[in-house]
Amino acid sequence: MQPIKLSQIEWHNVAILFTTPILAIIGCAFVPLQTNTFWLAVAYYFFTGLGITAGYHRYWSHRSYDASRTFQILLLAMGTGAMEGSVKWWSRGHRVHHRYTDTEKDPYNAKYGFWWSHIGWMLIRTENKARVDISDLNADPLIRFQHKHYAALSIFMAFIFPTIVTGLLWDDWIGGFFFVGVTRLVFLHHSTFCINSLVHNLGEHTFDDKRTPRDNWVAALITFGEGYHNFHHEFPADYRNALKFYQYDPTKWLIWFASLAGFTYNLKMFPSNEIEKGRLWMQQKKIDEAKKNLNYGVPIEDLPTMTFEDVKSKIKETGIKLLVISGVVYDVTDFMNDHPGGKGFLRVSIGRDVTASFNGGIYDHANAARNLMQSMRYAKLVGEVPEELKALEE
């Protein structure tokens, strides 16, 4: 990143993101918290948070499902109360993020560090000329209205509305402002900001590891199910983030339950066959990486070649203990006294092809034995083995 200039500071974002925590601390210190107010703050936290995840994110940014106009208006009101910008601004930035993930054009590039992707990108104005298509947002009068009047609408939904509710219902005007309004907003901001920061730095690459997004079940608990971020970046048009029934994804549940009443429909799901391909690909990649730390012996294709006559001559000249299994010559000199079946059987197997007896003619050796034999490879056999030197039974 280039050095930051004073003229690049986004002062209105600085004011919101630094003033609200101070007000929240003042409220917690001096304003009594009533039980009703506490539970409303929790409910409004989920209400506005799901407006971001189900509305701003999965509906308007990714169009992962269709929604009735009534449900769109509800989602718009919910998300506006989160005070994270208009749908047009938020969704444009998010589409840029997906198109240019981890590059200089990514507005919350995780490679610039945790704090940049968490909050810094909102405090510092950068030159970002990345282009994405938002014609659908520009064509929607509901989105245009919210964008035009966003300042007034967000102040009302974030602070005034919850204050009125607590004031009229149980006469807690001050508590409504400080706890349901301000404190709830601080927690909501930093929980949803974790989608850009925490899950781009900590967790598992379940489906792909080309980019920073990760799956993190702990993060899912504080981001309304958005913690399964590796899945999301691989399959962004899927209305789900979590696939398993036990994985926490209240955003998915909201969208699905709304579909039962007809408020949402055409819920998009990526083919399970392709999802499993991605999962297995990463599992195989991890297995291959782990195998690099293990001794699998000299690869068969890299072994020198020997004829069976060479094998017999080598044994006679040096006393080395060689035997043949499936076209590979093995040196069992140092294994003679350790063979679980006894030294005697190995002694009578020296200089012979014991493929049949090794594979069940006498005993069908376990996988562990076959793995151990890899470290004893000596040469690759070429040519034929005389029938009388093929061991079939004891």
From TrEMBL:
InterPro entries, per the entry: Acyl-CoA_deSatase_haem/ster-bd, Acyl-CoA_DS, Cyt_B5-like_heme/steroid-bd, Cyt_B5-like_heme/steroid_sf, Cyt_B5_heme-BS, FA_desaturase_dom, FADS-1_CS
PROSITE patterns, per database record: CYTOCHROME_B5_1, CYTOCHROME_B5_2, FATTY_ACID_DESATUR_1, PROKAR_LIPOPROTEIN
UniProt main location, coarse: membrane
Keywords: Fatty acid biosynthesis, Fatty acid metabolism, Heme, Iron, Lipid biosynthesis, Lipid metabolism, Membrane, Metal-binding, Oxidoreductase, Transmembrane, Transmembrane helix
SUPFAM superfamilies from the UniProt entry: Cytochrome b5-like heme/steroid binding domain (SSF55856)
Pfam families: Cyt-b5 (PF00173), FA_desaturase (PF00487)
A GO molecular function held by the record: heme binding
Alphabetized SMART domains for the sequence: Cyt-b5
GO cellular component terms listed in the entry, alphabetical order: endoplasmic reticulum membrane
Places the protein is found: Membrane
Bilayer-spanning residue ranges: 12-32, 38-56, 150-170
GO biological process: unsaturated fatty acid biosynthetic process
Domain Cytochrome b5 heme-binding: 303-386
Membrane topology classification: Multi-pass membrane protein
Family the UniProt entry places it in: Belongs to the fatty acid desaturase type 1 family.
Protein's name in the database: Cytochrome b5 heme-binding domain-containing protein
Species, as recorded: Chytriomyces confervae
